Amino acid sequence: xxxKSLQDISYSLLDLAxxxxxxxxxxxxxxxxxxxxxxxxxxxxxxxxxxxxxxxNIASSATSVLLGFVAEATKSIRVGSGGVMLPNHSPLxxxxxxxxxxxxxxxxxxxxxxxxxxxDQTTAQAIRPDRMQQVRQFPNNVKQLQKYFSAENxxxxxxxxxxxxxxxxxxxxxxxxxxxxxxxxxxxPYVFASHFSPQQLHAAFxxxxxxxxxxxxxxxxxxMPCINVVAADTDxxxxxxxxxxxxxxMGVVTGEHKPMPPPVDDMNTVWNLREKxxxxxxxxxxxxxxxxxxxxxxxxxxxxxxxDEVMIATYIYDHTQxxxxxxxFAEIMQEQELETS
Length: 341
Hints:
Blueprint: E1 2-5, E2 10-15, H1 25-41, E3 46-49, H2 63-73, E4 78-85, H3 91-104, E5 109-114, H4 121-127, H5 131-136, H6 138-149, E6 170-174, H7 177-186, E7 190-192, H8 201-211, E8 223-231, H9 235-254, H10 273-282, E9 286-289, H11 291-305, E10 309-313, H12 319-335, E11 337-340
Parallel strand pairs: 2-3, 2-10, 3-4, 4-5, 5-6, 6-7, 7-8, 8-9, 8-10
Antiparallel strand pairs: 1-11
Helix pairs in contact: 1-2, 1-12, 3-6, 7-8, 9-10, 11-12
InterPro entries: Bact_Lucif_Oxidored, CmoO-like, Luciferase-like_dom, Luciferase-like_sf
Pfam family, one: Bac_luciferase
Protein name: LLM class flavin-dependent oxidoreductase
């Protein structure tokens, strides 16, 4: 066994600008910026935001706009999308948006790309009527983005300005082995959405590592699983705080995307057995508890996955408690050692 310090594993954050009961979207967005400023001081590598639409509890639909708001308020943390749903957009427009960000904040912008709609099918149709055709074009559109960001595109008829020559690093996001094949073929880093779709995590990482082809951007495979974390002073407090997360995911199951509610003392008063089973299946890789509890469980998870980096999502009703959870996780990652083979 080789001894590998958790200090060698980067840790990052996924944020959706979640709107809680009694909040406005502006409140949620300002809290996201405040969170980014804190986690920058706590050693987080990236602050990513995800594109979602037509959801009363998420304010990150205009992802690139919010990323500029966050990047302006921070100094060193990488800021990016986790992700932009590329079939919703023209590759040229995304290249211009993220090229503008990269021009303003050099060497700090990431572009994570997904192919899911980030919403319901009716809204997806409203966003782009030919979306399904664009889903099939996803691999080609990723390559087109790379071309727009390259200095070699200067002689092309269509150019991304700003954007050209910025070489914004691309990441492939996914929740199945389909995305693993693509990330491997293109030689791009791979992020898996195990925080809500855990079933194919290990299979996808195996496919990616076995099929990986080196590229100009990346010479060796690089995997980043996303997990949920709710950390507090005690296991009991963390479990109580996590009931807001569970209620939010219950909304995913029922289709009711209402603002995230405060914690409850007993989830059995809120959900039925079918909803409970569905939520618990989605939240398989959710780590809830005191610093010691989360440390032990996350350490084991990182050993099992061989992650190069881990991204956490933390959904807590109270902003102060959310900040505290992120601080506790940073302490875990800075202090512990991980045995790897």
